[in-house]
Amino acid sequence: MIDTAVAGANALTRRWVATIESGGSSAVSGAGVWPLLAYLAPAADGDGRDELTAAVGMPVGDAAAGAAAMVDLLRTAPGLRAAIGAWVSPDLKLHADWRDSLPPGAVGVAAEQAVLDAWVREQTDGLLNRMPVQVDPETLLVLASALVARTRWTQPFTDGMLSAAEGPWAGQRLAGLRRTTTYCDRLAVYDTAAGPVSVLTVEGDNGIDVDLAIGLPDAPAAAVLTAAVDAPAVEPSRRGSQFGEGDTAPGVTVGFGSGHDDTPRLLAALPRFTVTSSHDLLAHAELFGLRTVSDLRAQRLPGVSDFPLGVGAAAQDLTASFTAEGFEAAAVTAFAMRAGSAPPSQRPLQVRVLLDRPFAFVARHRPSGLVLVAGWVAQGEQQTGPGPGFAG
Q1: Which of 329, 291, 324, 328 is nearest to 310 (CA)?
Q2: Beta carbons of 168 and 214 less than 8 angstroms apart
Q3: Which end of the chain is more exposed for a tag (fewer CB within 10 A), N or C?
Q4: In the chain, what's the furthest Cα-to-Cα distance?
Q5: pLDDT over 70, % of the chain
């Protein structure tokens, strides 16, 4: 069950990142949306059920169980935290079968905006501070998920300053991160329709990894992100240990370092970053299977209640930060329902990965393969004080 749920959530993320444009930083969490869609799919009928089932990627009869398995994974895996909340108007009577499909204790009486915002702050440890949908007297039901992911790197980076010699970040003083490792195969290069994409895996100490991906300078963000999401299931054209002197790839150069042994090394340099995003899911209603159920002219969710209901708002807020010590991200997603009608010895080979222009990131739960957060970094964090520097 969980394998099918993970596959469905990752497919949703893949479709979503294909809509991200290169102009600005952005991040999404299909893992935060998917359980809500899975809880709603069995409650819909007609075209609405078909669309939600397609978006979820598993039979409608299994969807609620798949959502429960996903939430259980997100609640119990090290470094992860998740919650489902539902707030119901006193005037709305829910069907017991649908109410019981939600996690125990998830359903409460409809509350003021301040109460829902407080739930977000509590569930995300203050990383986010508001519910992404606004409630009003016409809001009959709010269904929300909260997801937090945290990890510390098995090998921390060193803080410094990063300066790019060319490209959109040329001349900027960026808060840089740098580290060197002998595990060269944490770098892999993949062939895509948009050209080669280099992917560097940064391992966390609790089973959460972050893949950093960079393509050719003119490669669209969507193409680089898609390659990063797909990376575990695709055979790379080259791994870091297969690079030789003078080889190149996007963001990658190879030369010789200094040292007293001939062990190859992988040097990585990139800026610290924090990406925050807010998404109106109904702007891409077809992607999430919400086209029909967001049409309020008829009863769209008869499995929830006999009272006519439709999805009047659907949104996600997200923040993700990559630092020298680790990575943390939080996503809150909410639906509001309304009535409707080979080197020489002594000179080690050095494979250098330099992310000094826009790049992608994908945070993944290593044991299950679940993509937790995926995003595009259009601008790194600026350096605000003095510090050791390294240039691109």
Answers
A1: 291
A2: no
A3: N
A4: 78
A5: 94
At 292, list the tokens. 């029909």
Q: What is the mean pLDDT of residues 124-141?
A: 93
Q: Count Cβ atoms below 10 Å from residue 267 Cβ, excluding itself.
A: 16
Q: What is d(CA 240, CA 9) in angstroms, rounded to the nearest whole number?
A: 30
Strand order in the sheet with 107-109: 107-109, 80-88, 139-152, 326-338, 310-322, 273-280
pLDDT single digits (tens) 217-267: 999 999 999 999 999 999 999 998 888 888 889 999 998 766 556 688 899
Quick one: tokens of 251?
């963001």
Match 């030789």 to its residue by tokens. 244
Please give the pLDDT value at position 388. Answer: 53
- Angle, helices 2-17/60-76, rounded to nearest 10 degrees: 90
- The single residue listed with the structure tokens 């999430």 is 288
Q: Which residues does 178 contact at the CB level (< 8 Å), separation at least 6?
A: 157, 158, 160, 162, 267, 268, 269, 390
pLDDT of 99 strictly over 60: yes
339: pLDDT confidence band, cut at 50, 70 and 90? confident
Res. 345: pLDDT tops 80: no
Q: What is the mean pLDDT of the chain?
A: 92
Q: Do residues 328 and 127 touch, judged by C-beta distance below 8 A?
A: yes
